Amino acid sequence: MRTVLTFLKPYKLPAIVAFLLMLIELAVELLLPFFLGKMINEGVVNKDLNNIIMWGSIMIGLAIIAFIAGIINSFYASHVSWRFAYDMREKLFAKIQAFSFANLNKYPTSGLMTRFTNDIRQIQNTIYMILRIMSKAPLIVVGGVMMAFIVNAKLAVIFTITVPLLVGFILWVLKVAGRLFNHVQKSVDKVNQVMQENLVGMRLIKAFYRRDYEEHRFMDANRTLANRTRIAFQFVEASMPVLLFVMNLSLIFIIWFGNSQVIAGTATVGDVVAIINYALRVSMSISMFTFITMAFSRMKASTERVSEVLYTEDVKNESTVEPASAPIQDGAISFNKVSFIYPENDKAVIKNISFHVEKGERLAIMGATGSGKTSLFQLIPRLYDVTKGKITIDEKEITAYSLEKLRNSIGYVPQSPLLFTGSIKENISWGKPDATDEEIIQAAKDAQIHETIMNLEQQYETKVGQKGVNLSGGQKQRISIARALIRQPKILMLDDSTSALDLTTEAKLLQAIEKYNSTTLMITQKIATAISADRILLLDEGKILAIGSHQTLLKSCELYQEIVASQFGKEFSYAE
Fold first, then answer.
1. Which among 168, 328, 372, 496 is least surrounded, fewest beta carbons within 10 Å?
2. Is the pTM for the entire model greater than 0.70?
């Protein structure tokens, strides 16, 4: 609950106001049976109309006060709960944005989405109900018992047996229900995961005609969620008959014993009516404990899941070295005996590699799938940190640059281009928020996408569907490249980013980016692309197999010869 209290702290005053207003409602609810007993004893039994009017007027006045307090309480309770949820979502989003890749890998996307939506909404609703009615229920139980003893201690003695017994039972239910609802939330994660994968991969599912398989997979996840939800709700709801049975026995005893006391003359009719009213209120409040138990159990499970993310210990990317005051100037890159192992893994994917890329040089990186090409790329903007060795840029270790300065100097185009919902213009300017229209157009021209954009009905204002679903693979790649070029980066990183382009378009693109004078690293599987680079680095199982120009590797590297032969034929050769 530390998390909940932390986020409620800024709204302590409105929460206190809501709680005080709830106490007014509580006081009225506890006083009404007492005054009802007075009205019966002093007015009804004695046939005194004045007493009936007086006590009746007091009760009506108190009811009006409670009504007004309830309305204002609802306002403050809703204010606190929605502001709480707003702040928690904002903090959670900021936390995830600050996550390293190592931390992101701990949580599936569907699990994070459930925390943003279902879990925070559950906590928000419970906080509202706490300030509105939940906290009133246990106070009515305590207050009702106390008032019953004030009215008639003999009749109220039954409460000393039943109430402690029921409270202990409720605490046990709460403990077990907490575990059950935690399983429910995990099942919600799984359903969301299957849904997300299906929505993203709908074209592939249709192309492979795997609808039946995916429906079966969803049914399994949905059935698990339904079964776990049923078990949790049935367990909690099963406590209701137990509570009602015990309280009804108490009422029967009060009525029987009260009747005998009235006959004996040791109790009045008004006392018996008041005690029965208090017993009914206590009974209703204890029966509400089922709802409270369910809400608190789900809130507890949701709070633990949100706290798990909020208080995840960061894998520090920032160096203890004082960050360099100047940004990257040239973009010369050096790897010095660098090795890298992914977190929670024991196998190195990069193994003791060393190489240097001069300012403005273009280096093509080639290798089989799993050779470590993308892993190597991710070390330069420090999406991951090296395990051993060091990387320098302009002869300074990359840890000497702040992450902001380092990454703002890099134009990165990932292997799978990702576009955001919005216009094409917004997607390109995402790389430089203050970019002018001229800069956007120039970047698009250099990325060889300008003419395509101009042929669209709304041109640069054309809306891009989620993840660019309404664009072709080549169009998405070129927009992603334009987004990187608009930054005028010192280092340009293209992770197989021209795979969907034809050779002519690719040649124009590679020629256009020469004017940016960026140090360019290109992961590619195409020899035609690699030839345009100044040098080619060949990776094999995380190690550098060879590095040099196309002609050098063609003469000295057997693997490179095999790659060239596989793409151009064994008879293909290059003239000096």
1. 168
2. no
Burial of residue 169 (number of CB atoms within 10 Å: 0-12, 13-18, 19+): middle
pLDDT at 421: 79
Report the candidate in 364, 366, 362, 341 with the shortest Cα–Cα distance to residue 351: 341
Indicate the average pLDDT of the chain.
82
Higher per-residue pLDDT: 103 or 553: 553
First CA to last CA distance, the chain? 72
Q: Is 536 strand, coil or helix? A: strand
For residue 204, give Cα distances in angstroms to 152, 199, 201, 207, 210: 75, 10, 5, 5, 8
CA–CA distance, 263 with 266 (Å, rounded to integer)? 8
Q: Which of 223, 282, 216 is nearest to 250 (CA)?
A: 282
Instruction: Report yes or no: 366 and 410 within 8 Å, Cβ to Cβ.
Output: no
What's the chain's Rg over C-alpha atoms? 35
What are the two backbone dihedrals, phi and then psi, of residue 382, each rounded to the nearest 5 degrees? Answer: 60, 40
Q: What are the tens digits of pLDDT across the range 164-203?
A: 777 777 778 777 877 787 788 778 778 877 877 776 666 6
**Distance separating alpha carbons of residues 452 and 482, to the nearest angstrom:** 13
CA-CA distance, 409 to 403, in Å (whole number)?
Answer: 10
Strands (E), 346-436: 348-357, 362-367, 388-393, 396-397, 410-413, 422-423
Is residue 397 left, alpha or beta, with left meaning phi > 0 and alpha meaning psi from -120 to 50? beta
* pLDDT of 68 strictly over 90: yes
Q: How many CA atoms lie less than 13 Å away from 71 in the CB half-sphere?
A: 5
Q: Name, in order, each residue with C-beta under 8 angstroms of 61's C-beta and a sequence gap of 6 or more.
A: none
| pLDDT tens per residue, range 366-387 | 888 888 888 898 899 888 888 8
Q: Coil, strand or helix: which one is 466? A: helix
Side-chain half-sphere CA neighbours of 194 within 13 A: 19
For residue 169, which of 247, 276, 228, 231 has the smallest C-alpha distance?
247
Which neighbouring-strand residues pair with 516?
A: none
Helical (H) or strand (E) element with 37: helix 12-39
CA–CA–CA angle 497, 541, 376 (5° rounding): 45
